[in-house]
Amino acid sequence: MSGEECDLLLQFVSIEAAEDIELDRLARRFNLELQREGVESDLPPEAPGEGTRGAVGTAIGSLAVKILPSLLSSLLGRIKDFLSRSHDRNVKVKVQLGKNVVEIEYSADKPLSMADVSHLVKSLTKSVGK
What pLDDT is stored for residue 44 in this prediction? Predict the structure, then answer.
């Protein structure tokens, strides 16, 4: 699997009470940053209008990313840097790769270390591609 792109799902979740629009804005800003750097990423389809059918299970603040597994550490570091520049309060990011899910809790007063990022990468990739 080392040379194949994998699909990754990111979801910004508020630790504090935050409106869906704030989480959506956070996902959109991060998506724009990734696309500017040539990373294949996309937001889920827009929410359906009232009384219409649309995508089921689309979560507010979600972002789909295609990435090489060897760049996973770089992406998690990128999330860390992005959140450190953000004026949004405390945020949790759920990252799903295959069946593996990790949650990164970012708090302005306790940023993630690179050791934390390394541990998260190991957790995500432990059984993917076997």
Answer: 72
